[in-house]
Amino acid sequence: MRRPASFCLLLGLITACPGGGETTSGESTSSDETTGEGSSTGPQLTTTPTPTTTDATTVVDPSTTTTGDPDTSGSSSTTEPGPVCGDGIEDEGEVCDDGNDIDTDLCTNACKFAVCGDGIIGPTEECDDQDSDNTDECVDTCKLQACGDGYKGASEACDDGNNDDGDACTNMCMPAGCGDGAVGPDETCDDGNMVDTDECPGNCQKAKCGDGFVLMTAMDPAKNEECDDGNKTQTDACINSCKNAKCGDGIAQLGVDDCDDGNMNDFDACSNTCKVASCMDAVKNDKETDVDCGGGTCGKCGDGLACVANTDCTSNKCTANKCAPIALPGVNCGAANVTQAQAYAVINNNCSCHVFGQSGGLAMPDAATFKMNTVGVNATNAMMKRITANNIDASYLLYKVYGQQALVPGGGGSQMPQGGPALSNTDRCLLVNWVKSGAP
Asked: What local confidence, expressed as pLDDT, does residue 80 receive?
């Protein structure tokens, strides 16, 4: 029995169609296919498994499929893409996505916020070395190592993290020291040098008298010192005003000055050579009324020298501030030439105590001895010669005869002759004229 052609077409994969009909495979039928119907050896219909349809027009032949992994070549199926950093979309697993490939902004190319220590120099960082070593060039705040950051770098001796240049660690990150230019905690100045003669010497203490450094500055010469021995001894070569000791500064230098009254008055008790006034320094000084005399401190002044009182003069007579010579009062004698014999006769007749013995240190046993022991000979106590030839006012023996011995400095005792009546005016005039005659 013939199968309709449409049926064959529907099958599509039939290899033979009975009765010599058309085949869809293009193959010819075998001779067996033409044998009569009912024959036991009649043609056999060979069929394939029922095909599976995928749509109205497509038939899939199961015989053509293979087992195992499907061949995806030429397949129209697609795989949905995963998250991509940098696409501007903050996907799951990303904390940011700024849609660019700039690694140094706030969102890195790993879609993470920039942080110190991630190895990327972010917009607020100076460096990022991903380590915790604060002694290298990048500290753990991602800042370049710098003096004052509180981290002691390799080139720093100290770092106290502040800008106080007056503490133990300077703003150069060096320990404070004299001469570094910064006033440290134990310093009152620091000019950055070790010059000892300026206003800030090498001990970094403001210059002052007594510090042992001689200040010599052109900035203010009035402050300059002549010396500075670093002590408080006032009587050495450098006094406490840092001036060289000198006569007249008011300070007696030990071993040099006898005195120092602080003035240049050469006539007071301390001379301008800082020597104590004396009665042999050939200078009218201290209380002296004339050079080395008067004033009660030295001997009496001679006639014509300055005085302020009678006691300043050897004559015991100060007139108009000059020592005036003593004048023997009460003399009323006419001129006459008297010999030694005539004069001695007066002594021999009236002064037995001197003739027969020694009285008051004076012996006159004869004329020659009389002259030898009186003319030009100092009186025992009185400041006058016993006889001064040609000068009755300077002859103490005449003062004794006239009873005026008290007028002579140092004079005293009784009138001559002792214990007897005074000499007559004739006898006194004989002695007076003998002196005026030159005491021959």
From this structure: 63
Residues 6+ apart with CB under 8 A from 377: 385, 386, 387
Mark the ranges of the chain whose per-residue pLDDT is less than 70. Answer: 1-81
Q: What is the pLDDT of residues 16-71, one digit of tens each?
A: 334 444 333 333 333 333 333 333 334 443 444 444 433 433 333 444 433 444 44
What is the number of domains present in the chain? 2
Is residue 358 a part of any domain in this protein?
Answer: yes
CA dihedral 220, 225, 226, 230 (to 10 degrees): -160
Are the C-beta atoms of 377 and 387 separated by less than 8 Å? yes
- If DSSP codes are grouped into helix, strand and coil, which group holds residue 179? coil
In terms of Cα–Cα distance, which of 337, 336, 344 is closest to 363? 344
CB atoms within 10 A of CB 138: 20
Does 366 fall in a domain? Answer: yes
Residue 314: name the closest of 289, 335, 349 by CA: 289
Look-up of token digits 């849609």? 99
Domain residue limits at 21: 5-37+44-56
Beta bridge partners of 385: 378
The two tokens of residue 411 are 């004079």
Taking CB atoms within 8 Å and a gap of at least 24, the contacts of 347-351 are 349/427, 350/416, 350/417, 350/420, 350/423, 350/427, 351/416, 351/417
Residue 387 lies in a domain: yes
Q: Give the pair of three-digit tokens for residue 393.
A: 């006012």
What are the structure tokens assigned to 215, written together?
């200040």
Residue 52: what are its φ and ψ, rounded to 5°? -105, 130
* Residue 250, burial from CB neighbour count under 10 angstroms (0-12, 13-18, 19+): exposed
Q: Confirm whether 24 is domain-assigned.
A: yes
Residue 74: the pLDDT is 45
174-206: buried (b, 16+ CB within 10 Å) or exposed (e) per residue?
eebebebebbbeebeebeeeeebebebbebbbe
| pTM for the predicted model, two decimal places | 0.43
